[in-house]
From TrEMBL:
Species: Humibacillus xanthopallidus
Binding residues for NAD(+): D30, R35, T85, T121, E154, K265, R332
Family: Belongs to the UDP-glucose/GDP-mannose dehydrogenase family.
UniProt protein name: UDP-glucose 6-dehydrogenase
Bias (Basic and acidic residues): 456-465
Assigned EC number: 1.1.1.22
Keyword set, alphabetical order: NAD, Oxidoreductase
GO biological process: polysaccharide biosynthetic process; UDP-glucuronate biosynthetic process
Organism taxonomic ancestry: Bacteria, Bacillati, Actinomycetota, Actinomycetes, Micrococcales
Active site annotation, chain numbering: C262
GO molecular-function terms, A-Z: NAD binding; UDP-glucose 6-dehydrogenase activity
Stretch list, region Disordered: 437-465
């Protein structure tokens, strides 16, 4: 099948390479010439395990090409939309300009029977509006819009594309659904479950999944805070929860909360769209989920401040982690970076090390960047593990003792072997781990005036270089 893929970011590039792996002829179209040049030369523009091999396989086979030129779409009659749908500036809603611009660019190239398949995460109702645009421009029934959302996780993008746990095919006609299913024949033959539905349900199923995942993390983080206050053990507690088959053991890790290019903005876009539809309860619930999430970042900043005697000014902090999660170089709305930035803004000398994301920080004047764990922590009054990279959990605390000023570590991802660190003389602190219990006592405020920047402003600033 000849297929075009609009948008070659984490989603689109992985999707295009996966399609080529299955034998389709695929052209990836992007407005970013730098990205296109890299992909065309089989050089991944981001870190994603297994992606380099998949990309190289596609490019060398000749089945996978990339271009900024719309004419490269050629005679493809199935087009996937994988462009970004970030949060709109000054609003909680999704910014759909890239979706509209990709569809407008496609319009003159859509022949009779063309199928436009959305994969980006969009507010429910978007496919209907796109179908109207196509019908107005081309005449009713000439081209169809369907939705086939993607559920991959960064750091597992290739694995999730080659072995997804479900396929959702939202189409208004059997013909369109059949054509989408034909694209995924290798997965369907391998038994991957397919849910065939309408485009509206497909769009909503995707954002709903992210809403449920984000809510689950905030619930766990509330439980962790209660554990901390009550002197209970959050790790044993989540083990108990996970043994209930109705809850399950996955996605129950407490700590610094969720970040990344999707969960935070999808949560807000969902609440915004639900409000437009007259459903106010969505915002009531999801604003709380969002606030609990931001609270983890404030709590972590406060913990660091307390451990440094009430002020971070001129204190040296070694930060391990900048990416929003392990095995990724993505720093979009990264909780780790939000905390590091807030501490630097409050006057701390912050040195950050991240195995893959450090290149994004090269232009930052407020943060020093170190190329190793030891150099990040050299002379540190406080060490903070803010991203769950396995390399950080594997650090030898006895060896690290030799480089730091003080053996105090904040384990914001609950990823360290506490006993081992304590045996090496470290004071190990973590959100969710017990602090002094005061029955009926008042709790300290988490707000010490050290502010967190708007993550979108931080992202914009980072991109602007
Ligand atoms: N990153 C992820 O793990 C997943 C992302 N999604 C969704 O997929 C969509 C894309 O996300 P990412 O790949 O992370 O974003 P991204 O920001 O990494 O990539 C988006 C790409 O679209 C390109 N683009 C923008 N306007 C364009 C246009 N008019 N024509 C062609 N290309 C254009 C950009 O230059 C960029 O390369 C979003 O809706 C996201 O919510 C869904 C599942 C997983
Ligand atoms: O729409 C998307 O883009 C994707 O968003 C998430 O995937 P992703 O953001 O790549 O990563 P997750 O593994 O979900 O982690 C998100 C954030 O939550 C945090 N997290 C995750 C799990 C957990 O138990 N606790 C926790 O704090 C992570 O550290 C990270 O900051 C969803 O898991 C994917 O299904 C979805 O396709």
């Amino acid at each position: 099948m000849r297929i075009s893929v609009f948008g070659t970011g984490y989603l689109g590039a992985t999707h295009a390479a996966t399609l080529a792996h299955w034998g389709h002829e695929v052209v990836g179209i992007d407005v970013d010439p730098h990205r296109v040049r890299r992909l065309a030369a089989a050089r991944p523009p981001f870190h994603e395990p297994g992606f380099a091999e998949l990309l190289t396989g596609g490019v060398t086979s000749g089945r996978l090409t990339f271009s900024t030129e719309l004419d490269a779409v050629g005679d493809a009659d199935l087009h996937f939309l994988c462009v970004g749908t970030p949060q709109l500036d000054g609003s909680r809603a999704a910014d759909l300009r890239a979706v509209w611009s990709a569809v407008d660019a496609l319009l003159p190239r859509l022949g009779a029977g063309a199928l436009v398949v959305g994969r980006s995460t969009v507010p429910v109702g978007t496919a209907t509006l796109l179908q109207q645009r196509l019908d107005e421009a081309l005449g009713a029934g000439r081209a169809e819009v369907a939705w086939n959302p993607e559920f991959l996780r960064e750091a597992h993008a290739v694995e999730d594309s080659l072995r997804p746990d479900r396929l959702v095919v939202g189409a208004g006609s059997d013909d369109a659904a059949d054509r989408i299913c034909a694209v995924y024949a290798p997965l369907i033959d391998a038994g991957v479950p397919v849910v065939r539905t309408d485009p509206c349900t497909a769009e909503l199923a995707k954002s709903s999944a992210n809403v449920v995942l984000a809510s689950r993390i905030s619930v766990v983080n509330v439980l962790a805070e209660v554990c901390e206050a009550a002197g209970a053990d959050i790790e044993r507690l989540t083990e108990v929860l996970g043994l209930d088959p109705r809850i399950g053991p996955h996605y129950l890790s407490p700590g610094l909360g969720f970040g990344g290019g999707c969960l935070p903005k999808d949560l807000r876009a969902f609440a915004s769209r639900a409000a437009e539809l007259g459903v106010s309860t969505a915002a009531q619930l999801l604003d709380a989920v969002d606030e609990v999430n931001t609270h983890q970042r404030h709590r972590t900043v406060q913990l660091a401040t307390d451990l440094l005697g009430g002020t971070v000014r001129d204190r040296h902090i070694g930060v391990l982690g900048a990416a929003f999660k392990a095995d990724s170089d993505d720093i979009r709305d990264s909780p780790a970076l939000a905390v590091a930035s807030a501490l630097a803004a409050a006057g701390a000398c912050v040195t950050v090390h991240d195995p893959k994301a450090a290149h994004h920080l090269a232009h930052r004047r407020d943060l020093r960047v170190a190329d190793g764990i030891d150099s990040a922590c050299a002379g540190a009054d406080l060490t903070m593990v803010l991203t769950d990279w396995p390399a950080f959990a594997a650090v030898d605390p006895a060896a690290l003792s030799a480089v730091v000023q003080r053996r105090v570590v904040v384990d914001a991802r609950l990823s360290l072997d506490v006993e081992r660190w304590r045996a090496a003389g470290w004071d190990v602190r973590a959100l969710g781990r017990p602090r002094e219990v005061s029955l009926g006592g008042t709790e300290g405020s988490a707000d010490d005036g050290v502010g967190l920047a708007d993550p979108r402003a931080v992202d914009r600033d980072l991109r602007a270089g």
